[in-house]
Amino acid sequence: MIEQTQTLHVKENNNTVGGRLLQGWDRFVTALSLPLCSLVIFLLLWSAVAARINTSLGKLPGPMQVATQAKVLWNEHLLERHKRKEFYERQAKINAEKLAADPTSERKVRKYTGKPTYLDQILTSLLTVFTGFFLASIVAVPVGVICGLSRPVMMALNPFIQIFKPVSPLAWLPIVTMVVSAVYPNNDGFLSKSFINSAITVALCSLWPTVINTALGVASIDKDYINVARVLQLKILPKIFKIIIPASLPLIFTGLRISLGVGWMVLIASEMLAQNPGLGKFVWDEFQNGSSDSLARIMVAVLTIGVIGFLLDRVMVLLQKAVDFGK
Amino acid sequence: MAFLELNNLGKSYGQGEQRLEVLKNIDLHVQEGEFIAIIGFSGSGKTTLISLIAGLLEPDEGEVVLKGEPVARPGPNRGVVFQNYSLLPWLNVYENVALAVNHLFSNWSMEKKAEHIKKYIEMVHLTPASHKRPAELSGGMRQRVAVARALAMNPEILLLDEPLSALDALTRGTLQREIEKIWSTNRKTVMLITNDVDEGLLLADRIIPLNPAPGATLGPIFPVHFKRPRDRVAMNQNPEYKKLRNEIINYLLDVGSKRNIHQDNHRWTLPDLEPIVVNSR
Predict the structure, then answer these.
(1) Scanning A164, A266, B104, B147, which has the fewest C-beta atoms within 10 Å of its C-beta?
(2) Does the pLDDT at position A129 exceed 80?
(3) Is residue B249 part of a domain?
(4) Which domain CATH number covers B244?
């Protein structure tokens, strides 16, 4: 009798607002608890193992040291920004005084020459990867569409795709550097050579997944859609833009998502070698620097690279969901 | 000269040894405004026949002649309603019909085109669902959009390739009535491919069975003389209807069984093997 009453009691609660909130909270906690548990275990293991490994640069940093260095990097960034602001204010003040004393004197405006902070480097990396990804996409999507539409073209280009796909960015970089130096001899101009080298290397390595997926998407669209185009007697260009591309968008976006992931990985390596002032250069400089904090700072960089890569992937997944039309 | 002529049409697939003759000696004359139903078994080449008339396939023998001109390629004057609807899934109902209208009547004004599109969506009773995508529609609604799109092209002949096969029997009954209503206002020439004899008797002026593959030919023509509008319930009591229905079904079963006997004559040679005897204790 008592058990019956208890069951009824629980059933009553489930449909109230409070009951539903409780269910939602339960689901939230369950979804979080497993990753949280593994995170805690990982942090404990990390500090335990790190304390036992002695490298030439001191003990391997544990989570506490890494967190400290993250804070240090943030403070360095704030300090640098503050110094830059002061510099520009000073300069403006000097110029105003000079102008007040002698209205015909020239204004001297010099650019602040502080070194890039950690956040500047993150921004440079993001800019480089998006440039490379954009370059790759505007080449890969049209090539993929043509390959998907015409089997002879696909058979002609396939050997090149298969052979260049596995090449590492570290192998491309010397060639790219030589070619860019030949074509772009002086270092004046809008973009620095290191930026161009990194962006082109990222493009070269990340265009293959998009080419392959686009070609697959175009080749595998439902024959019925093509029949609709034939009955309407659509010309080739409207057929491509109104039917073929929208039909293969899901696979194109899959390719783009993979390409962005590959590009982000390739970026760090090519930045290291090309000395582009981004996260790759940060890691390389810290390694060369060899101070006792270096390893911790490198680990901060590793975590940053991972988190940014994850966020980039999530953005692509959202874009993919937006174009998915469900059959 | 008939409106649509199929003269000695033949189509085969494959080369050499694997050459499969699907259609052979198809001869048919269709007058303008007629509703023809072709009834056949699955796999007897019905879709091949429709594709040949639409121009989506090229015949190996014979020709398709529409209004005196041989059919060489697909075109909007032969509106096709495919078996799988072929609605573009990234466009909603309005945009799917608009794709056809905007392309074919590009010299019309925007208002005229919009009015035309809305008229045909209203004709199939889908105005409340104009902004839904095919994934959000039921099978019957999707088929109606396909019919609206085909009609909006103002074709000279409407080709329906088993349009109601993928639907349940109740939806099929509703859509058959709708097709009849739409046809009676338009009186276009229609060729309907179906596997349902009742559907043919309800809608068509003439029913022609398609014999089974390989080498499918057209069977005898069964004219359907019942007055329109035809009420399914009333017709079921009509002895003429029952007689005609039985004739057609008997013909189909006859040719079907002849094919089966032909197939059973295939001799299979089994390999000469002895089973392994496993000693079990």
Answers:
(1) A164
(2) yes
(3) yes
(4) 3.40.50.300
